[in-house]
Amino acid sequence: MEEIKEKVTSKPRSELLQKSYLILKHTVESCNYFLKAFYICRRRRKGAATDEEQDLLRAMLVFSCAGLDSMLKQIIKDALLKIVNSNEKSHAALRQYVSKRLARKSDIEGALLNYDVKFLSDILMQESPREGLINAAIYDFTSGSLQSHEEIFKIITLFGIDPLIITQESETLKKIFGIRNRIIHEMDINFLHSKRNRNPHAKKDIRKYAELIILISKKILFAVDHTIKPLCWSV
Questions:
Q1: Which residue, 1, 8, 28, 36, is the most exposed by fewest CB within 10 angstroms?
Q2: What is the pLDDT of residues 39-49, one digit of tens each?
């Protein structure tokens, strides 16, 4: 019986990434459970997969995306401070975030940019303003859904790692998240189809998409692990 090709065979070296590693490991296991259940169902009958059987494939894809989302947020919570201290690109990305977070557009067209005084005063009143800014960034980046190509790219930039991890697969990723969003928000229903009202999916395609999400998750995790070095300069 076939399984997801992508495996998680080694742990990252950084202790800060062990929870993220565990999330990825269980993501692969869950995807394999859904794939195994699909094969078991298919033993009993031939022909096109039913909607019930395809729900197992849909669940596999949704879980792979959820695993990526959860892993990225865990990395941010556990390791962002260390990443910023270890990586100049990450430091620059955080500085850009702070600039945008402080700036606030005026309601009056053509007026000069002003600043979020409340946010600034909240940060300055803390014992460590630097940690306050990083905590604000952690909250902002983990409070929403990381279920789009654009959001993943934003987090990769924050980590200061090579964007080629996803840019080479940009169009496929956009397609995957499009399918994921239709499943989550629209139940994958196609009201224009008169006989079968849910969008059909080939097993090989959904499996390939889930494997790509897992592969990208692995690449991000171990790229971050590579960037976390002993503190050699301060922000």
A1: 1
A2: 999 887 888 88
